[in-house]
Specification:
Length: about 180
């Protein structure tokens, strides 16, 4: 199986990391691992996931959107026009019923509004209110600053390795059955 990864960051080192990732995926089954390797990997992965959960709780501000809310509303941030519920759900990677339930809460909170679809009166389009736009943009800016802080805490070599490993982990998670 061949894994092809497109990394949208420019730079010579990232292109090399992408090519190395393809080679390492093909060769992965040839590398023997031990129970202690698996145990060490599992422990580090658990530590990483726990640190991520703690950071979300620690760094979340009052009135800040949850990650689920942010990921649902994020596609609206760069759009000039409101989106239909199904299009918004697809862009956010959730089911339409999940999006509908979340949007009902967000509408009650005054962050989104439903607008009639000009072409089909049975449908509605979702738009951010001014408050919704402010909160999504604020969450986006905080997230970008945190990512930059993490990025800058790594050496150039660690950045390349991390980019490669995170892409590989994302692919492995997508392949889980």
């Amino acid at each position: 199986m061949r894994l092809e990864v497109e990394i949208r960051t420019t730079g010579h080192g990232v292109a090399q990391a992408s090519r190395a990732l393809i080679v390492s995926r093909e060769e992965m089954t040839a590398i023997p691992s031990t129970d202690s390797d698996l145990a060490a990997f599992s422990a580090v992965l658990d530590d990483f996931l726990a640190a991520t959960r703690r950071a979300r709780g620690r760094l979340g501000a009052d009135q800040e959107l949850t990650l689920s809310q942010y990921h649902l509303l994020r596609p609206l941030l760069d759009r000039a026009e409101p989106l239909g519920v199904c299009a918004l759900a697809e862009a956010a990677g959730v089911s339409a019923p999940t999006a509908t339930r979340a949007l009902a809460v967000l509408e009650r909170e005054g962050l989104v509004e439903r607008r009639p679809d000009a072409d089909d009166r049975r449908k509605v389009r979702i738009a951010l209110t001014d408050e919704g736009l402010h909160r999504v943009a604020a969450k986006h800016d905080r997230s970008e600053r945190r990512r930059e802080q993490i990025y800058r805490s790594l050496t150039p070599s660690e950045r390349q390795t991390t980019t490669r490993v995170l892409a590989r982990l994302a692919a492995a998670i997508e392949d889980l059955k």
